[in-house]
């Protein structure tokens, strides 16, 4: 399995963050893709297939998500930069989110 996936969990409600827009950027190529989290808070293929080595940034539209859920929040956007070293690997970048904090890690 190759490519890039993500998952967003709303830690306040303990439920998936459904309907959140996520964009992928490359420093030289600009925006590469845009997708929206599904009913499980996942985007299974932000980028399908191999992803070229380099530095990328996922931008999560947390402001619109919290506005839609009528939840006051501090972060209108969460950006996660990461490095791809192996085009044949699968990269999973999850986001654990609350209105006033977030965390991430390299998933599997």
Labels describing this entry:
five-stranded mixed β-sheet; purine metabolism; mainly beta; Transthyretin/HIU_hydrolase_sf; Thyroxine_BS; 53% strand; 1 helix; EC 3.5.2.17; globular; 108 residues; single chain
| Percentage beta strand | over 45%
Q: Give the tally of β-strands.
A: 9
Radius of gyration: 13 Å
Query: What distance separates the N and C termini?
Result: 11 Å
What is the H/E order? EEEEEEHEEE
Protein name: 5-hydroxyisourate hydrolase
EC number: 3.5.2.17
Family: Belongs to the transthyretin family. 5-hydroxyisourate hydrolase subfamily.
GO molecular function, one term: hydroxyisourate hydrolase activity
Describe the fold and architecture.
The chain is built from 1 helix and 9 strands. With 108 residues, the protein is mostly beta strands. Strands 1, 2, 5, 8 and 9 form a 5-stranded mixed β-sheet that branches. It has a 4-stranded antiparallel β-sheet with strand order 4-3-6-7. A hairpin with a 3-residue loop joins strand 3 (21-26) and strand 4. The mean pLDDT is 95.
